Amino acid sequence: MILRRAVELLISLFLIASATFFLLAAIPGDALSAQTNRLPEQARKQVYKNSGLNKPVMTRYVITMDNMVHGKFGESIVTPGQTMTKVLKEKLPASARLGIQQMLFGIPLGLIMGVLAAIYKNHWIDRFVTVLSLLLMSVPSLVIGLLLQSYFGGKLGWFPIIGWPEGNQLWWGGWSYTILPTLAGGIGYIAGYARLLKNSMLDVLGSDYIQTAYAKGLSGRSVILHHIIRNAFIPVTTSLPVSIAFGITGSVFVESIFVIPGVGQFFVQALTNRDVPIVLGETVLLAALYIVTLFITDILYTVIDPRIKLYES
């Protein structure tokens, strides 16, 4: 099973990297066209030769794949000397802290709201959670972030509008800079996980074994904790690792509007500039995290519900 997953991981990464490379190559222009338009023809050719963009697409593809196999994605074409290693070292801490804070704020609150909505079905609590979840899910994090900036940062002046902690405060400190971005991104987790757990719990509540548990004289608290919530958490287990993987690699919209020097904002810049080595590196990294989290999800299934077998005979 593990060997099969490892092979699937390698094949998936190869296909994703290949698709990303050819899609970027198919777009008219390149990373150097805007910078070299006013250069003399001889100088322009030399710049393209130094970057390797003068070679045919298939030649560049073979070179890129060979470097990727050895863990090398090359230097940035737009910013010479910038590599994926440097990008992760400089940008990932900000994105990781932002993502962790958003998840610690949004996911527990969303799960609590989902439990309450399922337990108090058709009560005002259920209606409140349902309406709030729909409202929060329908408003993009970009809009929420701009509203928070305008009111709490601009009108009230309680928090900084842009910026992020640096230096010794990169991981712990500078909290005033992190509150608005955390709220802007965490609200999506609240809505998503509240609806997910509520719907899952309602499905479990209608099962025969729940009625059997009540018939045996088990208390409502015992049934909810040991039967309903545990079985209802299986869909949550599917979403949680994926949320973690995407959370720590950066939120594009939130990082952009709050000018956070993270991976998400840098990825948008690299994609706009068609900086192939950086775009390819970040795409493969995100894909690898996503596939690994799917494998972790399969393992967590067996922990939550022993009836699910990871290894098939």
Assign an overall shape.
globular
For the record, what is the CATH homologous superfamily label of the largest domain?
A: MetI-like
**Class of the largest domain in CATH?**
Mainly Alpha
Number of strands: 0
For the largest beta-sheet, the strand count, sense and barrel status come to: none
Structural class: mainly alpha
Strand residue content: under 5%
Total number of helices: 13
Structural write-up:
The chain is mainly α and 313 residues long. It has 2 domains: 2-69; 84-304, MetI-like (MetI-like fold). 74% of the residues lie in helices and 0% in strands. It contains 13 helices and no strands. It has helices at 2-26, 33-36, 41-51, 57-69, 84-119, 124-138, 141-155, 175-205, 208-215, 220-248, 252-257, 263-273, 276-304. The radius of gyration is 24 Å and the shape is globular. It starts with a helix and ends in a 9-residue tail after the last helix.
